[in-house]
Amino acid sequence: MIRLDEVHKSFTVKDRKTRKPKRIDAVRGITLQVKPGEIYGLLGPNGAGKSTTLRMIASLMDPDAGRIEVCGLDTREKPEAVRACLGYLSTDMNVYGRFTPRELLRIFGEFQSVDPVVAERRGLHLLEKLDLADFADVKMEGFSSGQKQKVSIARALLHDPKVVIFDEPTTGLDVLTAKTVLDLLRIMRDEGRTVIVSTHVMPMVEEICDRVGIIFDGKLHGDAPPRDLLRSRNARSLDEVFFQLAAETEGGN
Ligand SMILES: Nc1ncnc2c1ncn2[C@@H]1O[C@H](COP(=O)(O)OP(=O)(O)OP(=O)(O)O)[C@@H](O)[C@H]1O
After folding, report:
1. Is ipTM beyond 0.95?
2. Which of 3, 137, 174, 197 is deepest in the core (most CB within 10 A)?
């Protein structure tokens, strides 16, 4: 279970022109819940606050205000226990080309205190599910971006996490590779895991997400099953809802 209650996060950066400190309100009061056995899709334009939200859920960053609970644990009070119960795929995963997938997964298994025999078995099982088992013993330096992404996904799921957080998992992947990743997310959901995924790819959201939330300007809009969202907005696609919200947000600013 993931629970966010009125979560806020700001950053202070230097304004490029004036060189004075400038505050960016990246997340402005987000409240949401994702249940076990559910895939929640987080949509939004560049810079909307999706990755910041996911990083806070993954307990890699504290909220300034509000509360986040993962697996019944407060991310601020128990960050290590939270990290042990979740698998996080970020947009900037590095796979270390000197290693093979099997070697990398062994190392990450040790980091996560997974029994080496279990880590080996589970790592190979994940590589098989991701159509990468034939490359388990090949050094990753020549891997394509899709192959590297698959290894990162196996690494994120190696410790059998109850909660799965994937930040833009299909960006840069061809349709076949993207389908393999989406199929794996469906399996995760069907196994009763809590899944949250951020994306720009609307058809993917309509296809696999049980509920979607759209972040604009750090705020959450339209938290509902995709079909209900389309009906309530009299829209034919999530793209259309996205454009409506963009127009409303601009109108309100
Ligand atoms: N560490 C940081 N320091 C300063 N500003 C940051 C930091 N992280 C994020 N931001 C700012 O917070 C805002 C939200 O960023 P975030 O990465 O969460 O957006 P996003 O919705 O994931 O965007 P994208 O789809 O482009 O990845 C942006 O204005 C970004 O520049």
Report:
1. yes
2. 197
